[in-house]
Design goal:
The protein is of the alpha/beta class and 357 residues long. Helices cover 36% and strands 17% of the residues. The strands form 4 sheets. It has a 7-stranded mixed sheet, with helices on both faces. Strand 3 (92-97), helix 4 and strand 4 form a beta-alpha-beta unit. Helix 1 (15-26) packs antiparallel against helix 7 (237-252) and helix 3 packs parallel to helix 4 (100-109). The longest helix is centred in the last third of the chain and has 22 residues, at 255-276. It is globular, with a radius of gyration of 21 Å. 4'-deoxy-4'-aminopyridoxal-5'-phosphate binds at residues 9, 74-76, 101, 145, 149, 168, 170-171, 189. Keywords: Amino-acid biosynthesis, Aminotransferase, Cytoplasm, Pyridoxal phosphate, Pyridoxine biosynthesis, Serine biosynthesis, Transferase. GO terms for molecular function: O-phospho-L-serine:2-oxoglutarate aminotransferase activity.
Length: 357
């Protein structure tokens, strides 16, 4: 039976990535060596890094004023690394609290300096993202999460401010067109839309690198890491290759504008069914903030929750249980998930509705 993988991450990747990655484990590009045994100082890996950077720059139209890095570790590491680099003792940073990951970023920043939370959605269980907040002009940066993976909320507009904007795009990077010039820094774990776990994509405006605190260890220093072009120490060679393969796949599919159209179509289809089906309710009611990547919904009767998970699994639909011990469902429709898989989930929801009558 074909499985339809709606996992929140690590998540489904394109078949193209699996096939090429499997080939590379045996013999990378005719070199006679597995990529797993290939030096990060080899010309083979230099080619991988160069192509990954060039493709990312092309796909997201990243200007030369920004450095592009592929670093070991996930976004949680950068929750700490960003303030370590940029938040000096006598400065403050502004943060928007829109969910668990945003709150984790806030907590890590508090180790390094003053943190001003401009708004929080916590009191209403992060069902929507607060808007209309003020960002203090003297903040060293403003940090927010563009897509809240657990709650299924998203901010499509970049908040307007004169201070550098830093955005965690872990769960929506490469899913829709963005204007990179609106950001001081973008970062993302790759294991949702861009590869195998172990790597973060970092896009940082070079002038911010001039303000990095010099009194921090080199291994965490973005300026040092940028000067060494992601090769300060041994990077996760194989995981970076899976990111390159994702970028190649995305380009073949027509780039960001083509994938964005597909993501709109896929998410509309599922939201329509959630809103129509008598057994389910969408978690996010504000339609402008409904995520196209992580679609969250409940069974109106909690006792039907496990029944639906089992019913779906029997039909090959997996990964729709909400995060950790949160109740309800989350269907993640990342770039590699096909329209056919979404249609299958919709059909399973309809069948379940008939079944329960
Ligand atoms: N930010 C967001 C938006 C996420 O969804 C996640 C993980 N699901 C993280 C940060 C943390 O990523 P990691 O576990 O790779 O550190």
């Amino acid at each position: 039976m074909k499985l339809h993988n709606f996992s929140g991450g690590p998540a489904i990747l394109p078949d193209y990535v699996y096939h090429k990655a499997a080939d590379a484990i045996k013999n990378y590009n005719g070199t006679g060596l597995s990529l797993l045994e290939t030096s990060h100082r080899s010309s083979a890996f230099a080619g991988i890094l160069m192509e990954a950077e060039a493709l990312l720059r092309e796909l997201l139209s990243i200007p030369q004023a920004y450095a592009v890095l592929f670093l070991a570790g996930g976004a949680s590491q950068h929750f700490a690394q960003i303030p370590l680099n940029l938040l000096h003792k006598d400065t403050g940073a502004a943060y928007l609290d829109s969910g668990v990951w945003a709150a984790n970023a806030i907590n890590e920043a508090r180790y390094y300096g003053r943190v001003h939370v401009v708004a929080s959605g916590k009191a209403e269980a992060y069902r929507s993202i607060p808007t209309g907040f003020a960002i203090p002009e003297d903040s060293i940066y403003f940090h927010y999460t563009s897509n809240n993976t657990i709650y299924g909320t998203t901010l499509r507009e970049v908040p307007q401010t004169s201070v550098p904007v830093i955005c965690d795009m872990s769960s929506d990077i490469l899913s829709a067109e963005i204007d990179v010039t609106k950001f001081g820094m973008i970062y993302a774990s790759v294991q949702k839309n861009a590869g195998a776990a172990g790597v973060s994509i970092i896009v940082i405006r070079k002038d911010l690198l001039d303000n990095v605190n010099p009194d921090i260890p080199n291994i965490f220093n973005y300026a040092t890491l940028a000067t060494n072009r992601s090769l300060y120490n041994t990077p996760p060679v194989f995981a970076i290759y899976t990111t390159l393969l994702n970028l190649q796949w995305l380009q073949r599919e027509g780039g960001i504008s083509a994938i964005e159209k597909r993501n709109i179509e896929k998410s509309q289809l599922l939201y329509e069914e959630i809103d129509r089906n008598r057994l389910f309710t969408g978690r996010v009611s504000n339609s402008t903030q409904r995520s196209r990547m992580n679609i969250t919904f409940w069974a109106d009767k909690p006792e039907q929750e496990q029944a639906f998970l089992d019913f779906a699994a029997e039909r090959g639909v997996v990964g729709i249980k909400q995060y950790a011990d949160y109740g309800g469902f989350r269907a993640s429709l990342y770039n590699a998930l096909s329209l056919e898989s979404v249609k299958t989930l919709v059909a399973v929801m309809q069948e379940f509705e008939h079944h329960m009558q």
